[in-house]
Amino acid sequence: MSDRSLQISEAPWAGAEVLRASGLVVDRDSSVALDGAGVTLYAGEIHALMGVNGAGKSTLVAALTGALPVVGGEIRLDGRALGRMTTTQASAAGIASVYQEASLCGNLSVAENIMIGQEARGRFGIDWPETHRVARRTLSRLGLDDLDSTTPVWALPVAERQLVAIARAVVHDPRVLVLDEPTSSLEPHEVERIFSVLAGIRARGAAVLFVSHILEQVFAVSDRVTVLREGRDVGTFETDDIDRAELISVMLGQDLDSLRMLGSGTRPHRQEPEGDPIYRTDKLGLRGAVAPVDIDLYRGEILGFAGLRGSGRTEFANVMTGSLRADTGEARIDGRVVKMRDPAQALRLRLGMVTEDAADDGLVTGLTVRQNIVLARQALRGWADPVGAAEADTLVEELTESLSIPADLIDEPVDRLSTGNRRRVALARILATRPRVLILDDPTRGADVAAKAAIERKIERLAGDGVAIVYISSEMEDVVRLSDRIAIFRDREKIAEVSSGPGLSVDTIVELIADDSHYDM
Amino acid sequence: MSTTTATPELKTEKSGNDVFRWLKLHIELLPTIAAVVIFVAMIAYGQIAYGGILQANTVSNLLINNAHLIILAVGLTFVILTGGIDLSVGAVIAFTSVLGVILMNQGWNPWLALGLMIVIGAAFGAVSGILIQYFNVQPFIATLAMMFLARGLASMLSTVPERLADDSPFLVLAENFKIIDGPKVNDLIITPGVIIAIIVVVAGFFVLHRTRLGRTVYAIGGSEQSAKLMGLPVAKTKLAIYIISGTLAGVASAIYTARLGSAQNITGIGWELDAIAATVIGGTLLTGGAGFVLGSVVGALVLGLMNVLITRDGGIPPEATTIITGGILLVFVLLQRGVLAKKRE
Ligand SMILES: Nc1ncnc2c1ncn2[C@@H]1O[C@H](COP(=O)(O)OP(=O)(O)OP(=O)(O)O)[C@@H](O)[C@H]1O
Ligand SMILES: [Mg+2]
Questions:
Q1: By CA distance, what is B17's nearest residue in A?
Q2: Confidence at B8, pLDDT banded by 50, 70, 90
Q3: Which among B338, B337, B293, B288 has a CA at the least distance from the CA of B85?
Q4: A chain contacts of residue B13, beta-carbon cutoff 8 Å
Q5: What's the number of CA atoms in the CB half-sphere (13 Å) around residue B247?
Q6: Helices marked H in chain B — which ranges?
Q7: Which of A7, B90, B136, B240 has its CA 20 to 30 A from that of A172?
Q8: Distance from B221 to chain A by nearest Cα, in Å?
Q9: Does B250 contact chain A (CB < 8 Å)?
């Protein structure tokens, strides 16, 4: 690797040292997940933590917050060594955390999730009115005034859960705030909101550590960045002193030159669809979720769904696969009317979907990556026709390689993978069913830079092979870059459809979404 | 609508179906509401078909005869809310009541004996809790082991009914106090046992809804993993709920023993299941995370009232009681399935 031009920051930060972790060793199920990792946080800084999927970021977060036991190294808070601590003790010491998989209790309300364990108490136990007041005040700091704090959390979409988890962490201004990919499922304006809250916390002299794969965000808000690789910290830099390419090269442990392949070239967009649509919806909709939508999806094209969260884009994707059952209109596959009842039936029709909710990724825990992939193919084929060993090998090799799932993970049980790697295995599993129609809701969420590039290349290749693809993402740039056509959603309705091409920019779409003229028609 | 910014609409459909929306979001209330409806329907039916249900002495008897069940159901509510189960309470009642009576007959101070009964109940709960929390034993197995242990200990003490002396001060727990002196025998009567049951219910309600312990119980039932990551004292709380359940078994034991005036090693067989049934009928999800103490009280009263109605009817063989209980339970468990399925959508 090439450290040549990199300035490793040794200089003490402006503020005082708040937290110093050094030489941390953490075991996860007998394998070593952290092997001498450390990070130092100063008062009044926002510190980014980066690294490829599986580098150990979440494990470091868990170690700092007492969620996983540390077998080596030490953590000092304000100079005092913290011994073996539980999450309860860590939060009492002022280390607040937001985990990668929003860890909330679905059965409790928004306000209860924010306040549980830190409720306001009066003479007669918990003072509910005051507790709700504090919760609402915190929500409004995050720009969530319109979120009903009595709604149970199970009824919220993933991104809102993430916001609730963040609200929980900032109720009582913590000394150290640790966030694991807090922004990966959020819309740009929400990300900004989060960052302004983080800036507020920094201004109060706390230290913020946040994990992100999104370079733009890291450069936009963080003062310093620490990179982890294979369970060790391989460098801490001032963000002003390092550029994107260098940062990526440190993360991957490769020379800058070998990274050219990550270039984000645009793919030539198809102008004219050929033949009959493979999937066509005729006023397909579900009351309360999405108004009736007409869509024609052709072989070999990528149809982007653009729109904000809650615009109906995800809802409609779910209606398309039967995860939500439509109550109006009809869907046709190859011209034949089909009633989508559930995702299992969709799979039989060779319609695959990757949902935005990773907790529900359809993987069989306990089985290895290989077994999960082969199982999916086997289920497609039926049990009378077993998948042979050679065929299984080719299948697994082809899929893991094209999605850049590290080869040494193939025989690991999926529950031992890091979140980003597991999401990619979930995608591989769907691809193993050889879908003719593929619906991808935020497929690159949580993927590191290299993995993201690999996924996008794979999507393009699938389209080239004739698969019809629906591509959904909060990253408007990605939608524009990848799609042939874009359906624009707003207020639970499809409001427009545009062809992609050199003339189309993100701004055009943003204008279409922001424009309210279609209400006056 | 003339919003110019593209902030996402949060689901605030301002239409007449606000109530409908609220119900959809709080669908876990449905089983509890159903239990209340059934309870009222049973009262109405009984009143119309047989008469004399809505009268003071029937109400008094219902409470007096079911005070112990109500107390057990409160304990089980805590346990089931976390997604656990406690099968030992019936056997703990047998052991503590036999021991208590023997000790009192040997001249122990009744209140000291009472204290010991409760402490022993708590100890059984503590052992279950430790097995479950620190040795990773399934709640079902851990409390099953405690059940066999307690039942065995009871049988070692005695296998015949142990009568409490008729003048034992302990019996004051079951003494009748007239609240309203009605015509003939139609009085509203209350016993200290019933008062204790009411206190237990109120305390249970308070703890569950107004203390951090109680909220942690709900959080554990929602997701134990999340509760841990949120920094909630999961281990302590799980230990506490089994201790609460055991303690309340000791209290129920004292009240039942005083009412009967005797104790036997075969007392309380299947009561844990009655208490579980009451809790489930009252709307507590077996998977944890949703339910109410007051629901469990209604559940216990539904079971009690059912016995009353069957007795009044005379035509239904008493053996059919368990079949009807089973039927009701089945309906409510199916209702729970429906609720969970609806939520998952
Ligand atoms: N639940 C688990 N059980 C066992 N091993 C695990 C578990 N989770 C992660 N690991 C292992 O620990 C190592 C570090 O994983 P970690 O989750 O910390 O990565 P990460 O940097 O957060 O990755 P990502 O970007 O995908 O979230 C990996 O080798 C992974 O396989
Ligand atoms: Mg992670």
A1: A288
A2: very low
A3: B288
A4: 288
A5: 14
A6: 18-25, 30-49, 56-81, 89-105, 110-134, 139-157, 192-210, 212-222, 224-229, 234-260, 271-281, 293-313, 320-344
A7: B240
A8: 8
A9: no
Phi, psi of B100 (to 5 degrees): -60, -45
Give chain B's length: 345
In angstroms, the separation between the Cα of residue B227 and the nearest Cα of chain A is: 7
Q: Looking at the predicted structure, is the pLDDT value of residue B67 above 90?
A: yes
Q: Is A51 in the pocket of ligand 1 (CB under 6 A)?
A: yes
Nearest CA to ligand 1 atom 31: A417
Q: Are A329 and A374 in contact (CB under 8 A)?
A: no
Cα B164 to averaged position of ligand 2 atoms, centre (Å): 65
Q: Is the pLDDT of residue A358 over 70?
A: no
Q: Does B178 touch chain A (CB under 8 A)?
A: no
**pLDDT > 70 fraction of chain B, expressed in percent and rounded:** 94
Which of A417, A421, A422, A425, when mutated, tests ligand 1's pocket best, judged by the most ligand atoms within 8 Å of its CB? A417
Q: Is the pLDDT of residue B184 over 80?
A: no
Residue closest by Cα to atom 14 of ligand 1: A56
B288-310: per-residue pLDDT in tens?
Answer: 999 999 999 999 999 999 888 88
Angle of CA points B286, B287, B290, to nearest 5°: 80
Task: Provide the whole-model pTM.
Answer: 0.82
Q: Kindly determine whether residue A107 and residue B218, on different chains, have CB atoms separated by under 8 Å.
A: yes
Q: What is B34-43+54-344's CATH number, 1.10.3470, 1.10.1760, 2.40.128, 1.10.10?
A: 1.10.3470
Residues above pLDDT 90, as percent of chain A: 37
Cα separation, B10 vs B151, whole angstroms: 56
Quick: pLDDT tens for A461-501: 999 898 999 999 888 888 888 899 999 998 888 988 888 77
Question: Which of these ranges, A247-251, A254-258, B196-200, has the smallest mean pLDDT?
Answer: A254-258
Give the start-to-end residue ranges of the domains of chain B: 34-43+54-344
**Which ipTM score applies to this complex?**
0.86
